[in-house]
Here is the input.
Amino acid sequence: MTFDTLAVATELKDAGFSPEQAEALARAWSHVASGDLATKSDLIGVEAALKQDITGVRTDLEKQIAGVRTDLEKQIADVRSDVKTLRWMIGFALGLLLLILGKLFTVHS
Here is the structure.
């Protein structure tokens, strides 16, 4: 971006600033204007890059969530299988216990 320090200094002098004040302000503004200030196109580029990054992060998160969901579903299926096995074992043990108790009562009667 170009900055016309002479034009600014002249305008400041015409507005009542002393020549030294006008030149000092013009130089200071020139330093600010020549600095690394973002232009509108810079900001548009940053916005586009951020949107792309956000899309990438969203995609990664969705993949991770899907992986966690799959892992949880497998773990839940494993627990359900274990519960079924435990129910069968408890039922078998109770049945066996009833048979033993039945035999004990018939022997002592």
Residues 76 and 82 are 10 Å apart (CA to CA). Residues 1-37 form one domain. The two ends are 111 Å apart (CA to CA).
